[in-house]
Each structure stands twice: as C-alpha cells, then as structure tokens.
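Folds vary. Our protein:
___
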Amino acid sequence: MQFAKPADRLRFVTGRYLARQLVAELTHRTPIEIVVRMRCVHCGSKTHGKPYAVHPGGTLPLSIAHSAARVLVATTTGPDVGADIELIDETRFNAQVLDQIESPLERGSQPRVAAAFTRLWVHKEAVLKCTGDGLMLSPTSFSIDFSRDRPRVIGWTGEVGPPIGLATLDVADGYVAAVAVGGTQEFRVELR
C-alpha cells in the first residue's frame, strides 16, 4: 500500500500490529502466526475490503479504525464486526455533510454540532464496516436510534438490512467510538 503521509502509514502499521497482538492473545498463539488479510464482499478482491485474521486454528473477523492519535481494533469469535473511531473536530463538521449521512427518518433529529455529527457518523461507519459494504452503501439507507441504553439500527430502506447490534465505546476524551456486531445475539465489549 502507498500512503500520502507518513502518519497514515504509521497508523496503518500500528493497526495491523495491534490486530495481530489481539488475535494472538485470544487464540493463544504468537503474533508471528497471525496474518491479516482483506477481501472485498462485492468483487472478491484480496487487495482491498474487509480485514480478517488468519491463525493456525482458523479465522477471526476484524475491524481496524484510526483517527488522529488513536487506533481501534475490534474482533469477535464468530459474527462479523465493524468499528470506527473519530476525533470530534469542529473544523471538519459541515451541516451539508450531515445532510448526506442522515436518513429520511433521522433528518433534523440531530443537533447541528460537531459532537452529534461525529456520533452519528461513527455508528454508521461501524455498521457499514460490519456489513462489508463500506461507502458502497449510502449512510442514508438506514437509521441509528440513540434513544435507548444502547444505540440500535432501525429503518433500513429498500431491502431489509441484516440484524446488527451496536455499542458506543468510551475510549478517550474528545473521541467517539462504536462497534457493530452482526446478528441478534447479545454481546459484551471488552476494552483492552
């Protein structure tokens, strides 16, 4: 992979390193036995797409995200996973961008401030990473309901989307992070 900025390369390498460490710990292997690969759910390419870890006993789904000085790695022992983290940045917030990610059901329900925009974006990005669609699926095609203890995906437009569980992560001041897990089962998030 080529990177325009050295900081981008460092975040990429750090994410892969942390993923190998985490999977090694969970599978009782050594990091050198873990390989991080990618596969696109749309075209089958192995040069881009959703990451996963290969270890001597099988595979584990992965999601790797980074923003500013933070890198987030998520995995599960079975269902698909997606995670995102973002620094709340007033200079990046733009009401027009919010209009491009809010679903019709969400339109006007979010305060027009950077923190609310970032919260919505991070949860939607986690869902899109979980499904493997990335931005090939419009963030406006589903809604996030924040009115309960744990956010949830509602209101898929068009075809009914897959069931996905969501959790907001408390990772660092000034950042918003979320994890999405495929399926309807309850799940527990363990931060390390």
